[in-house]
């Protein structure tokens, strides 16, 4: 029983941060119709920025709980500083072009941002230990778990619900949904589609940076940390269906639990199991589990 509980908690913990990353990726695809290969780089920037902000807060002898605020501010800083520059200065020139060209452009952006992080933070790993002990430990049965892991699951739930509420219960969200359905029709009705693109891309970058910032205490922040993240997040959105929040949640849970089972039963098959799940879903549902219904153009 304890082993099963450990397996479930490990799976949920892994799925939580992966869902936040995939949520940003699927939001960007839903609005901008871009498969953003550079999405993992925003995760890495969030992690590096969090390491710097938390380190500065520790050097200033601030209260330990303020390290959580520092991580959130790091994610906001990345989104505000990076998203408008990339979307307005680069991506907007390729809207409506061939999908392969957009993939190549975002892949080139990914390589540039990887070198940029190494130029700013160097090649040595960073460790963010301060926030990890803030939530103490949680005893379940005979096992003790780190409280921070449960806090991360809560953050994923809040992120998903907040995104769903913003899209479905606010005026700006309805505008975004109109652009998702048809950018041309939305533009003809007076909606500033260009601004919606900028805001949606900024929200996607923010979600990736939040995931990076709040997983920084759990990992070693080092170059190329973004590679595995972008591959796994693509697996999640492919399983769940591109552009679907519900699909991103289910896809993250499937990937997290599959990885947890593999790690506990056959560690060498960790990556194989994740891609096997994706392959099985694609065989029976090539469009993903929750692909949105698309209007047929005549």
UniProtKB/TrEMBL annotation:
The alphabetical list of record keywords is: Amino-acid transport, Cell membrane, Membrane, Transmembrane, Transmembrane helix, Transport
Taken from the record, one Pfam family name reads: BPD_transp_2
Q: How does it sit in the bilayer? A: Multi-pass membrane protein
GO MF annotations, alphabetized: transmembrane transporter activity
Cellular component, GO annotation: plasma membrane
Q: Which GO terms describe its biological process?
A: amino acid transport
Tell me the protein family, please: Belongs to the binding-protein-dependent transport system permease family. LivHM subfamily.
Protein location:
Cell membrane
Superkingdom as given in the UniProt entry: Bacteria
Q: Where are the transmembrane segments?
A: 14-35, 42-59, 65-87, 99-123, 143-167, 196-218, 272-290
Query: Matching InterPro entries, A to Z?
Result: ABC_transp_permease, BCAA_transport_permease
Put simply, this protein is called Branched-chain amino acid transport system permease protein
């Amino acid at each position: 029983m304890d082993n099963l509980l450990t397996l479930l908690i490990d799976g949920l913990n892994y799925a939580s941060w992966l869902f936040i990353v995939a949520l940003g990726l699927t939001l960007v695809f839903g609005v901008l119709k871009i498969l953003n290969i550079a999405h993992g780089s925003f995760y890495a920037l969030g992690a590096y920025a969090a390491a710097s902000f938390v380190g500065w807060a520790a050097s200033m002898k601030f209260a330990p709980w303020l390290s959580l605020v520092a991580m959130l501010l790091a994610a906001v800083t990345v989104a505000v500083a990076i998203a408008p520059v990339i979307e307005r200065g680069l991506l907007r020139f390729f809207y409506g072009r061939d999908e392969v060209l957009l993939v190549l452009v975002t892949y080139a952006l990914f390589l540039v941002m990887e070198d940029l992080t190494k130029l700013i933070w160097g090649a040595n790993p960073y460790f963010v230990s301060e926030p990890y002990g803030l939530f103490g430990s949680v005893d379940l049965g005979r096992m003790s778990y780190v409280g921070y892991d449960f806090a991360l699951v809560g953050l994923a739930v809040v992120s998903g619900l907040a995104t769903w509420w913003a899209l479905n219960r606010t005026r700006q969200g309805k505008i975004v949904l109109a652009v998702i359905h048809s950018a041309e029709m939305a533009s003809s009705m007076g909606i500033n589609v260009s601004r919606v693109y900028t805001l949606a891309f900024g929200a996607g970058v923010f979600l990736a940076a939040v995931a990076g910032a709040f997983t920084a205490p759990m990992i070693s922040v080092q170059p190329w940390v973004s590679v595995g993240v972008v591959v796994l997040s693509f697996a999640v959105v492919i399983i769940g269906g591109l552009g679907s929040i519900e699909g991103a949640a289910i896809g993250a849970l499937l990937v997290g639990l599959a990885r947890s089972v593999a790690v506990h039963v056959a560690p060498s098959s960790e990556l194989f199991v994740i891609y096997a799940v994706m392959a099985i879903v694609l065989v029976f549902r090539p469009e993903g589990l929750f692909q949105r219904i698309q209007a047929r153009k005549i």
